[in-house]
Every structure is written in C-alpha cells, then in structure tokens.
Specification:
CATH topology: Multidrug-efflux Transporter Regulator, Chain: A, Domain 2
Largest sheet: 3 strands, antiparallel
Distance between the termini: 38 Å
Strand content: 5-15%
Strand order of the largest sheet: 1-3-2
Shape: globular
Number of strands: 3
Helix content: 40-55%
CATH class: Mainly Alpha
Radius of gyration: 13 Å
Structural class: alpha+beta
CATH architecture: Orthogonal Bundle
Number of domains: 1
Length: about 80
C-alpha cells in the first residue's frame, strides 16, 4: 500500500484529476484501465493519482500535442478552477 504522506508528492482523487485536465471522470478511469495513467490504491478501494503521473500521461498523450488543457502551476496552486 502507498503512504499518502510521502514528501514531495501531491496526490489527486479521480474527480480532482479530471477537473485539472478538463476531461470527464470517465476519461480518467478509462486511462487508468488502459494503463495510460498510473493510479494507486490506498486504504481499501480508494484510488489516488500522483500529480506527476498525471502530467507525464498528458505529455505522452496525442491531446497534449494539439494543445488540449494541461494543468498549469498557477492553477494547481490556486485550487485549479482556471478562472482569472
């Protein structure tokens, strides 16, 4: 089992990961199922995604090459709603 308190690691829920990259939760689950996105099981059936793994999956994605939303540092630090 993964320790959630690992230093330097930001953990995301599936809904939060979907919100950060402007896709549906279903898309995140599909990426996890297809092993395009690494996820970790914590405390029973809870799933968490490392922010770095989400960013890496986006970098490797064809969507990243055509400019589909990727999380910016300022969005992540402000809560990620993207509104300015």
């Amino acid at each position: 089992m993964v320790q959630m308190s690992e230093p330097g690691r930001e953990w995301l829920t599936v809904p939060r990961a979907a919100q950060m990259v402007c896709v549906s939760e279903r898309t995140i689950w599909r990426r996890i199922r297809d092993r395009q996105l690494k996820a970790h099981r914590v405390l029973g059936d809870n799933i968490r995604i490392r922010k770095a793994d989400l960013e890496a999956a986006l970098t490797d994605s064809p969507l990243a090459r055509i400019g589909v939303a990727t999380p910016s540092r300022s969005d992540a630090e402000s809560g990620g709603d993207g509104e300015r």
